[in-house]
Amino acid sequence: MNQSSELERWMDNKFFERNYNRFSPYDSFKNGKIDDTMLSIKSCKLFLVRCNKTVDLCNFTFSQQYELEYFINDLKQYQKVELHKNILKFIAIIKQSANEYIFIHEYTYDGTLRQYLKQNFKKINWNDKLNIAKQLVNAVKCLHENDIVHMNLNSKKIFIHRGILKISVFQYQNEPSNKFKYIQYIDPQHLQNLETYKLNKSSDIYSIGVLLWEISSGVIPFKSNLSLHYNLLNAIICGKREVTIIGTPKKYMKIYTECWQHNSNLRPTIQRIFEDLNNIDYKDTINNEDDHEKDKLIIVDTEVLSELDLLKNLYNKTKKEVELISSVVKILKKAAEVDNSFNDQNNILSDSLFASSNPKVQDYFSNEYKFIYDLNQFFITQFNIQGGLEKSKNSIAYNINQYLNDNNKNHNEIFDQYYNNYYKYCFTSIIGFIYEYGIGTTIDFHKAFEIYNQASDEVYFTANYPLKDLDHFLQVNYLMKENRTIGLISLGLLYMDGKGITVNQQKALKLFLKSVSMGSNLGKCFVGNYFYHHRDVKNCINSFDWLLKPAEEGNALAQLLVGNCYYNGIHNDKKKAFDWYLKSAENGNANAQLMIGNFYRYGIGISVNQRKAFKWYLKSAEGGNSSGQNNLGDCYRYGIGISIKEKMAFKWYMKSAEGGDSLGQSNLGYCYQIGMGTYVSRNKAFELYLKSAEAGNSSGQNLLGVCYQCGIGTSKDVKKAFEYYKKSALGGCNLGIRNLSYCYRFGIGTPVDENKVKELLDKVHDRNQITYSDPSFIIHETS
């Protein structure tokens, strides 16, 4: 039976005998004059000449989205409350064709609440705002007292007529495809559990809280965040709320902050809200910003909280990211199926970038640009495994270069394809990384900062594609979330290191915390690492607590950092350090692989095993870790777990030096100095020692001192030799200490000072083996 015949059957029912006047044929409204004002795509004003009255006509279709049975139920509900002055009056329903009807209700002069606030906010005072708020609560109180749950309270479904607020009881506009159109008003517990948590009276209370804030501010809630539905949805679930507006009465603020609490059991009843609102003295406003700043601490706003308050707040709120996406897909699939059944062309998610005329993202990536999509996926995976610490990022850069070389790609062309890409804003994090490490372009920290800043911003768009295109929805949201998370962390690291911007560690911490609020486990690692290196911060949450949970959940960087905590003394336990390093190493982290190699090489907490040391150094080196490459060079140089091969030692020392490892530079310099695995070039040896020394490597500083003392690759300069030996000794290099004592003993570049000699030699192991007459005492002097 179709909806039309079903309606006729219902009209024969006794229920309609007293309501028949509301079910009218189309001809009965011919004597009407249509106003030239279109209220929306589906509605318009009509002046009824016969009744001398203006009404609002809304066109709709009975469908699976809004069946006749739902309408009948709404009509019964309406009868319970229709006499209330704040309920929008239903006048009639007109049959236009088989399934199409016109819904007629009273016309509201000021339009929706949102329109009213936009047009009149500068004119109204707090007395007017309180009046609107009281009417809103009064209307919902009437509904709840009659066991009616509205389920869709938002400022576009509430109307104002010459100062009188009106709420519609009918739900014919509540389409499933609009499920996420007004997410800022929806109960977060429902958003978190779409399939199991049903909207209820407490859900209406949450919506009231948001509406009361909107009335106080005149602004659409989260207007600047509406561009990416999933990010906002996730943020609301995690506790994100709007900021209190200056001038808001304290009692009023207390009401709406209680209403929008996450836990529905903590929200007040509509009766209590009604009483509290009526007890407000509208003159009780906050008149100075100092008081206002204190009040703002009631709600979470990362811009006004102190570093420690922000940390504690986000730490308490941040939980394991909820598994939302499957629920979202189910809802969208249902809406898509309904849309297909009724050929509803209006059910789309709107967006400015991915217009329907533009190529689908999966089609776009499956053709000529598939490689840059795959490379971006490789980058995301590497960033999440290696982390963004300096040596880790060097590993990522090494692996990207290797990936390009293995696929015979021109680095410059790939950079151009990213920069000029149609979907560029899905790739801003990798573009920033390319600028930071000069892959296919010149290193430019300022440009890297600019691009990372774009990646870290609230995203400028969502997607304009049909709901049935779920693969597109999922792919774009995944790309944008990963892009923004990496952008936030990378921008924070630039602030930490002062690359392209002045060092600002508090700004870096806020960016890391922002990534945590988006659900990033990697962000937790950087918050934990920040406090690990800033232990003087009073009453700070233990860095170990930040690291342990993501480590237990399998994050490779977190596992590495937990290993560091056990190794370096927060929880001194070398065996546990080894266990965590091993987990991280097995998950592919090149730094952890290096540490496991060191444990086996030196027997730290375990038995020495040179073969296993070689195996893990090889993994670390092939993963692009420059220290791992240096240590692999040591294995080939000294025969650690492998036979001595000087050419292989030279090869890996060179890779390590090219990756910026200062010890690798020093060892490569030694290869050139004595011709180990390569030809002799004292000039190159000197240049590499200089690089190593300037990077702060104590071994390089010692060897540079030898060059200046003996004239290796440069002219002799004993004063410079003395200065570099001194730097090397301060860095703890035993050879540097010995050579510095030699200078004091024989007055090389400094006056003789036997006291200094004794003081220095007391620091050196195996002091009795020192023989100043031995010409080899000065390291490599005779080479």
Derived structural class: alpha+beta
Please give the CATH class of one domain.
Mainly Alpha
* Beta-strand content: 5-15%
CATH topology of one domain: Transferase(Phosphotransferase), domain 1
How would you name the CATH homologous superfamily of one domain?
Transferase(Phosphotransferase) domain 1
Rounded to the nearest angstrom, the radius of gyration is 35 Å
Strand tally is 10
Mean pLDDT: 79
Annotated CATH architecture of one domain: Orthogonal Bundle
- Main sheet summary: 6 strands, mixed
Which strand order does the major sheet show? 1-5-6-4-3-2
Shape: elongated
Uncertain regions spanning at least 5 consecutive residues: 11-17, 30-41, 285-310, 312-326, 341-359, 459-470, 536-541, 766-783
Question: How far do the termini sit from each other?
Answer: 101 Å
Overview of the structural elements:
This protein is of the alpha+beta class. Among the domains are: 3-106, Phosphorylase Kinase, domain 1 (2-Layer Sandwich), CATH 3.30.200; 114-317, Transferase(Phosphotransferase), domain 1; 363-504, no CATH class. The protein has a 6-stranded mixed beta sheet with strand order 1-5-6-4-3-2, with no helix packed on it. A two-stranded antiparallel ribbon has the order 7-8. The chain has a two-stranded antiparallel sheet with strand order 9-10. The termini are far apart. The model is unreliable at 11-17, 30-41, 285-310, 312-326, 341-359, 459-470, 536-541 and 766-783 (pLDDT under 50).
